[in-house]
Design a protein that fits this description.
This protein is α+β, with helices and mostly antiparallel strands. The chain contains 4 helices and 9 strands. The protein has a single domain, classed as Cyclophilin-like (Cyclophilin, Beta Barrel), CATH 2.40.100.10.
Length: 190
């Protein structure tokens, strides 16, 4: 009986930090607009530590709050995260061209595939130009593999992702877009 109690205590001590690490690396996005709901993203600091740290820093500073999904292409992905020009209520003509006031990030490519629900960092043609913008995949996009940095994957709320208002044509620009009302790191809200 004593051995069982010791084993249970050890198991609890081991599991507690793992749970805390899980919450520390879970991004919670509250979507609002024509469609609403909550998305949880499991972040991957093991493959993209600098990109994950950037996302968490911006989320903790409230920079992603009220930022629109400015580029949404049916059958492909929903892009957001322009903290400079993508705020709801602003003139969105330049949405998708802005960034945070922090420097761009060096690419952290991995062998993780761009499957449904994967969160990737948006960038220009320069692989080392990711900053604040990211996208969530509606469907697999394996042509992006080893071209863009994977930073996580939807762990809950893919139905909310799938309901994000689509844009027009190949550009995916959206009239009256859905937006991220609030974005937080889960450990900060528990």
């Amino acid at each position: 009986m004593k051995l069982f109690k010791i084993a249970a205590t050890v198991a609890t001590l081991i599991a507690t930090p793992l749970f805390a690490a899980e919450a520390e690396n879970t991004l919670v996005i509250e979507v609002a607009g024509a469609n609403s709901g909550t998305i949880e993203i499991t972040l991957r600091p093991d493959v993209a530590p600098n990109h994950v740290e950037r996302i968490k820093t911006l989320a903790r500073a409230g920079k992603y709050d009220n930022v629109v999904f400015h580029r949404v292409i049916d059958g492909f992905m929903a892009q957001t995260g322009d903290v400079q020009f993508g705020k709801r209520g602003a003139d969105l003509a330049r949405a998708g061209t802005g960034a945070s006031d922090m420097p761009d990030l060096k690419a952290e490519f991995s062998n993780l595939a761009f499957d449904t629900g994967v969160l990737g960092m948006a960038r220009s043609s320069n692989p080392d130009s990711a900053n604040s913008q990211f996208f969530i995949m509606f469907e697999p996009g394996f042509f992006l593999n080893n071209q863009y940095t994977v930073i996580g994957k939807v762990s809950a709320g893919q139905d909310v992702v799938n309901a994000i208002k689509r844009g027009k044509g190949q550009s995916g620009s959206v009239d009256d877009p859905d937006y991220m009302a609030r974005v937080r790191v889960k450990s900060d809200i528990e």
